[in-house]
Amino acid sequence: MSNPVKAAQYLNKLEDARCEGRWDEVLELVRKVRKHANDRTCLTTVAEVEYAVIKASQKQTASTSPTTAVPTADLDTGRFLPRLLEVIDAEKTYPQDRFQARVCLGWVHWTVGEYDHVSPRLPTDEEHELLRLDQPDSVSEWTRVCALKAIYLRAYCLSRDNRTVEALDVFQGALVSLSHVWNGQKGRTQLQFWAELLLTEYCMLQAQALERGEKSLEDNGSLAPFRSWAKYWEVTKTQGSPLVGGHGFRGAVPRRRVWNEYYAAISSILQQDLPFPTSYTGSVANASSTRNQLQMELKKVETAYESLLLSETTFPRADEQREEVENFVAAVMRNWSVSVGRDWHEQDLGPGGKEGLSRGVLDILYRAATKTFHSTAILRCLFTVHLAVAEFDLAFHAFDSYMEIVKKGKARVDKTGHPEPSLDDDATMLTTISQAIIALCKYGFYDAAETARDLGVELEEILQKLPPPLPNTGSNIPTVDEENGNGVVLHPRVPAHVYALSWQAIGLSQAHWSRVTFDASVRIDLQTKAIRSLQKSLSPEIGNPTDIRSLFTLSLLLAEQRELTAAIDIVKAALLSNKRSTEQPFRMGPYWREISLIPLWHLLALLLSARQDYTMAARACEAAFEQFNDPEVLFGSQTLQGSFRSEHLNEAEARNDRTHPHGLVDEMDDLEKQGVIEVKMTQLALLELLEGPEVAVNASQELLILYTRLFGPMQLKSLTVVSKPSSEVPKSSAGTLRSIRGSIFGNKSDKSTNQPKRRNTLSSEKSNVPSERPQTTQTIMYHTSMTPTIEITKGNDGTSESARPTRPSSVRGRHPESTRRNSLKKRDSSAHQQRAHSSSGIPREPAVADGEPYPAAESVAATAQSGSLGLSNINGTGSQQSFSRGRGLLRYDSSISSNKGSINGTDLPALDSLSSPSSLPVIRFPDDQLERQRRIVLVKVWLMIASFYRRSKMYNDARDAILEAKKLVDNLEVEISKDVSGSVTTRNPGWGGKICLEELIGDVQAEMGVLATDEGTPYISRAYFEEALMHYPDHPSAIVGLSNILLDIYSEVLLPPPAIPSITRESAPGETSNGVTNARKPTPEKSKAACLLDTPLGLGGGMHQSSEASSTRRTKPPVQETPDLTATDTLPAPYKADSLPLIDRLAARDRAYGLLSGLTKLGKGWNYSDAWFALARAHEESGQTDKAKEALWWCVELEEGMGVRDWHCAGVNGYTL
Fold first, then answer.
1. Distances (CA, A) of 237 to 231, 242, 530, 1141
2. What interhelical angle do 353-369 and 323-339 show, nearest 10?
3. DSSP secondary structure code for residue 812 in this structure
4. pLDDT tens digits, residue range 590-604?
């Protein structure tokens, strides 16, 4: 008989037993419910059948999954199915009981493997809607379990029929049924079981669909299954029963597998730069960008998967490997390489930015290393990431460990004939070694060059042992790898691009070592080997002919070898390449190709200047900037003068609340910014050659403004301006204040004035300029950028200097109009005369400018149309144009076909596209190191400006500019002295530094010495040169300047200063008021005495003369010596001496010879023409005319192939980009 109270009590207990999975209590509770609630027949029948299904399923082994069919003998379907159908038809009162019966009926069919009958037996969608499962208290918990079970069974059957998309749609509808799981209290056992089973199957099915291409990650709901899984994971934590690793239920996939699929999906979105799916994202801050949201979600998934993976992974034995751990590390590295790329900004990554992300990756790598044994993949990744955070010592420690393990492993594989899967293959090993060599050459100092050389030798030996690489041909001919006796391929053939990278690294190490080695006898051999290695790297068959790094290094080496024709051809081939690229553009960021071509444009300008085609060289400098088409692309809408405008303009802009988008320079690293500065410095050097140093002084303001735009504001010396209204200022393009387009790219509206007319105007105006310059817009600096006064003055005779261009150089003897300057002066490019052959007598191959000279400005349009330099006239006119008035004459046209001929009719190699220049990660140096490097750049800028002032005979302003550089150097010295790490010293700039503090001090002191020489105070100049050599003994310009003074002392062109200073402040014996040295005319007696000993120790010339002189002294009687003879035994009183003793003069000559001989053997002086010219003079003074002639011929050879500046200024890191 029924009892409502007891019936309700036993119904609740039955509900609890079913939800908690206590099936042993179900039969007893069913009996009591039937006793006290005889109207719940449908409910009790369903409970009995569910009990039978559970017991039949428990008979399966532990390894079988819950989807495995149960034999019919274990489950009496013939008895259960009719009963269920009967109670379903009879139930009209309790819809939830009928719903549970329908689900149980389908479950029985599913359990015994009758999948075709499952879907028709399950409840329909209308029945699901009637239950209103989205309401919190509308149905019982077991009904919700049955709803999840029905959805799972229906989707499973669809997936078995390969109807994956329909199954996923069914699963997506189940997310409404999970609302009780998200928002309710802690679910009981069966609800958690079926919820996890449903979400697991949903995620794995989505991963399978994504892999097969049935679903796309571009869909807005592509991450919905995985986000639902993550939400379920978080809910269990808040409910007090967090999920752990392992398997959620018998036979299911591990829980970390679901996280792995989630991580793979979101990693693919990041790596392919797909739109961020926003469905089921939950509550996200509106202010955060989609990339920031993507990074946060990626980090959360990465942390969850890593914790499960490492907690469930044990340390392997020596013969085991942890493939899943290494796969996870590889995925992390792929994501990291994209996130720290140029297309991602600091604000996209959240707190910490790119450096914080790299530090997190390092932590992951070290944790993964605790679960692996000698993993070469993890060591390789540690090397890469430590490089990215500028921890070079730790990076190369990891690389050393990597090399030790790899070499031993390769030797073991060659000996046993059994490959080791955990060992890196040959291609990966070659790539890692190549990256290490490039990093050593690019960021290391002198000691790193030797390490790079050793690695290059080792890499070359490895390449010789490997089979030939895979060819670059597009044929479908299959390649067969060499097998051993067991039919196993131990050394697969490496791809052509890896082979090219290896030879590129070998050539780079050889070229770098040739520059720093002290053994002059092997330098030429090393350079020849480097050229051959780079040619192998660029081989069209087995190399990479589009690699911009190899093209740049090879062209720079050829330029040093004075093979200008070949170098120009290589540079033009790279510049004429099309813009198509096979790589993902978003990894390199926008305009990566144009940015990487800036050093090539710079090198082309230097090569053209070596051909005396200064106008085309200047236009090549402009093309480096104008290839971006719009200055706002490179510098942003905030123009250079925007930081220096008047206060009312800045206030007006602030009221308008305008924001300036950034330009490409804001995303460049400091090395690329230095490349931009170097192009501008070369541009000003060419301007000096074309229009004189006075115009270069005027334009030097642009260099400081550009530096401020690239590196930020600087603290400089205040400016004193003298206002004289009656004065008139020479009008030039550099003499007016212009915008960024005008200062960097020139004013395109001023391109109709021809250059000869402009020079005549400049000359006539300069002749009327007084000694002091009035206040103008050019001399009035902005309040934040303060420089010495910029003046244009006339010469000593009141007339302007010749408009003939001369190469600005360092010390070339004391006299401004020295014989060598006149003999070796560069010819005017406007004449376009045919170039003479080499002075060595060996005929050269006709250069690009030989048989057919470079076109003049009148034929610029025709030249560009023929594809000669990849330049085109913006205005399309062919009139001759001035470089200084419009320094934006030409623009690189990327659409020019590479198949067009060169100037002399020869065809250039066609490059379809340039490969990406990034072989190393973007390295982020510490802020203090970046600040030091920026100050070093500013020191170079100030010294160049000082040289302009000096050559314009504005000595006071030159001295002020040098003092500005000296202040920066003094500050650097103080900062370095406070460095306690020991990584940076005065003689070692540390990783990433190319100029040490001692060399910087030498630069400043040498420039002061050159200034003193031009002022006519050689002894003051000598003191500066001596101090420069005290700090940096191998300083080239200081050695040359000091040697010239010493040789002047020997030849008595320079007389000693008086022992007693003159009261009337008269000029010293060796100096005049206008700085011209009074040379003594040697008497015949003095010449005779001087030839008694004119050969220093160690020099073989003039021995027969010394013998004859000695014989003469023995046969002739002694004569009375006059006071003019500087014999050591009868020295005159100091106040009577007007010359130095002979022994002192010989010592001066010998010291000059020793300094110059050592300099010309170094990497910095072997091609330094000033040093060779001074050495020729030393040989001549010693009576060694043959050696002097040889040195002079070599000097002429160097001068004929010398650019307007040093070759290595094109590449900020020497031979590397």
1. 10, 4, 62, 95
2. 170
3. -
4. 788 888 899 999 999
User: In whole angstroms, what is the distance from residue 761 CA to residue 238 CA?
Assistant: 84
- Report the alpha-carbon distance of residue 851 to residue 868 in Å, rounded: 15
Query: Measured between alpha carbons, how far is 130 from 147 in angstroms, rounded to an integer?
Result: 12
Within 8 A by CB and 6+ apart from 1142, the residues are 1089, 1090, 1092, 1093, 1126, 1127, 1128
**Residues 6 or more apart from 262 whose CB is under 8 A from it?**
203, 223, 226, 229, 230, 301, 305
Rounded to whole angstroms, the Cα distance separating 584 from 125 reads 46
Q: Cα(204)–Cα(208) distance, rounded to whole angstroms? A: 6
Cα dihedral 412→416→422→424 (10° resolution): 60
What's the maximum distance between 2 C-alpha atoms anywhere in the chain? 160
Distance CA 195, CA 132 (A): 18
- Within its chain, how far is the Cα of 1215 from the centroid? 14
Which position has the token pair 């959620």? Answer: 248
Considering the entire predicted model, what is its pTM? 0.78
Q: What string of H, E and C letters represents the secondary structure of 20-72?
A: HCCHHHHHHHHHHHHHHCCCCHHHHHHHHHHHHHHHHHHCCCCCCCCCCCCCH
3-state secondary structure of 154: helix
Instruction: Calculate the dihedral angle through the C-alpha atoms of 426, 432, 435, 436, rounding to the nearest 10 degrees.
Output: -120
The two three-digit tokens of residue 724, written as one number: 């004289």
Q: Kind of pairing, strands 871-873 and 890-892?
A: antiparallel
In whole angstroms, give the CA distance from residue 987 to residue 1032.
9
Give me 1127's structure tokens. 């014999």
Give the per-residue pLDDT at 577: 76
Is residue 410 a contact partner of residue 423, using CB atoms and an 8 Å limit? yes
Place of tokens 């071509």: 597
Burial of 1034 (0-12, 13-18, 19+ CB in 10 A): middle
The model's pLDDT over 170-204, given as tens digits with 9 standing for 90+, comes to 888 877 777 777 766 666 888 888 888 889 999 99
- Per the structure block, which two tokens stand in for 818? 């020295």
What is the pLDDT confidence band of residue 622, given thresholds at 50, 70 and 90? very high
Q: List CB contacts of 633: < 8 A, sequence separation 6 or more.
A: 591, 663, 664
Angle, CA 104 vertex, CA 102 and CA 106 arms, to 5°: 75
Spatial CA neighbour of 429 closest among 508, 494, 362, 511: 494
User: What tens digit of pLDDT does each residue of 515-546 get?
Assistant: 988 888 899 999 999 999 999 999 888 888 88
Q: What is the sign, positive or negative, of the torsion defined by CA atoms of 217, 222, 225, 229?
A: positive
CA dihedral 304, 307, 309, 310 (to 10 degrees): 170
CB 560 within 8 A of CB 1167: yes
Contact 736, 988 (CB under 8 A): no
Question: Read out DSSP for 965-1021?
Answer: HHHHHHHHHHHHHT--SSS--SS---TT-SS-HHHHHHHHHHHHHHHHHHTT-HHHH
**Closest to 574 in 3D by CA, of 940, 915, 833:** 915
Q: What does the alpha-carbon distance between residue 678 and residue 671 come to, in Å, rounded to a whole number?
A: 10
CA 128, 130, 131 angle in degrees (round to 5)? Answer: 70
Amino acid type, 56: A
Residue in 965, 963, 959 with CA at minimum distance from that of residue 935: 965
Q: Which tokens hold the place of 515?
A: 């520059």
Q: Dump pLDDT digits (tens) for 849-862.
A: 333 333 333 332 33
